[in-house]
């Protein structure tokens, strides 16, 4: 027969899950040994009566505070909420569950919670995504996918004389946008832009996320008689289309927002090398930004 004491002891001595409990003011009343070991405490006395903010182990304490207030004030349960905390000088990812504790009169008298460190699985997930060639935020092919795909364009050029252009798209002032509206809004901006870029790409182009606020679009040029002037007209027309559609964004997530983008391009037949092509397109993009800002 398993006694309540045996069951509680088994729960509190497990290594992978860290348990803790708090009063209605979010102050620690106790914690499991695994919790203490995880943070490097020798005794539970080092945390009793203190809040998360007192401990200073969260990069951003607000989400944790908001979750616990929902538990204590509204009786809501929080399950596997992701978060970031600082453990022994390193940023670690955790998933936390928090539940209200009631007395016999049905009053909330505190909360009990537990969490797991998921840093390893998160890093593995990111590694797999990177290998698979998908950008986590936008869902677009990433830089790895670009280098895997671009070889086909180069081979097509050398074997069938099919030229292609590369457009380098950079979002203006995304850092300022994040500072003003928050990173969640900045992420929505990038998602919105990626959808617009995909709508432009159609059947003759492939869009890639180069990370952060940078996008690349590779466009296979039609047979224009191999004339430089004809190629230039096609490239400039698509360049204008990119600017028009991206700058046409008026609202994101219900907020008024005007998307500013800088665009540069290069043509493979002029560069004859992918790294030079990227370098030329990046330089063109920076010149475009400089001209618009002046």
Query: By CATH's scheme, which homologous superfamily of the largest domain applies?
Result: Reverse transcriptase/Diguanylate cyclase domain
Tell me the CATH architecture of the largest domain.
2-Layer Sandwich
Largest sheet: 5 strands, antiparallel
Count of discrete alpha- or pi-helical segments spanning 4 or more residues: 11
Task: Please identify the top-level CATH class of the largest domain.
Answer: Alpha Beta
User: Unreliable stretches, pLDDT < 50, 5 or more residues?
Assistant: none
Categorize the overall geometry. elongated
Give the fraction of residues assigned to helices: 40-55%
Secondary-structure class: alpha+beta
- Encode the helix/strand succession as letters: HEEHHHEEEHHEHHEEHEEEHH
Compute the average pLDDT: 81
| CATH topology-level name of the largest domain | Alpha-Beta Plaits
Number of domains: 2
* Adjacency order of strands in the biggest sheet: 2-1-5-4-3
Radius of gyration: 27 Å
The fraction of residues in strands falls at: 15-25%
């Amino acid at each position: 027969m398993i006694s309540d004491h045996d069951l509680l002891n088994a729960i509190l001595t497990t290594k992978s899950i860290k348990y803790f409990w708090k009063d209605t003011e979010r102050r620690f009343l106790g914690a499991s040994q695994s919790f203490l070991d995880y943070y490097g405490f020798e005794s539970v006395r080092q945390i009793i009566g203190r809040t998360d903010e007192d401990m200073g182990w969260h990069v951003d304490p607000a989400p944790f505070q908001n979750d616990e207030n929902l538990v204590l004030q509204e009786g809501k349960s929080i399950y596997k909420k992701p978060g970031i905390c600082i453990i022994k000088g390193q940023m670690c990812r955790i998933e936390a569950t928090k539940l209200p504790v009631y007395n016999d009169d049905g009053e909330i008298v505190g909360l009990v919670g537990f969490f797991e460190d998921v840093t390893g699985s998160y890093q593995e997930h990111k590694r797999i995504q990177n290998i698979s060639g998908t950008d986590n935020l936008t869902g677009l092919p990433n830089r790895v996918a670009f280098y895997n795909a671009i070889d086909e364009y180069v081979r097509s050029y050398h074997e069938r004389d099919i030229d292609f252009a590369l457009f380098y798209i950079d979002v203006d002032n995304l850092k300022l946008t994040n500072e003003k509206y928050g990173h969640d809004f900045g992420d929505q901006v990038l998602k919105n832009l990626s959808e617009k870029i995909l709508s432009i790409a159609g059947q003759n182009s492939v869009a890639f996320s180069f990370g952060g606020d940078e996008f690349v679009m590779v466009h296979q040029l039609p047979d224009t008689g191999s004339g430089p002037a004809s190629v230039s007209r096609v490239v400039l027309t698509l360049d204008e289309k990119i600017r028009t559609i991206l700058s046409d964004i008026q609202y994101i997530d219900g907020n008024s927002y005007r998307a500013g983008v800088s665009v540069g391009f290069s043509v493979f037949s002029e560069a004859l090398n992918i790294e030079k092509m990227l370098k030329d397109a990046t330089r063109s993009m920076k010149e475009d930004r400089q001209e618009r800002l002046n």
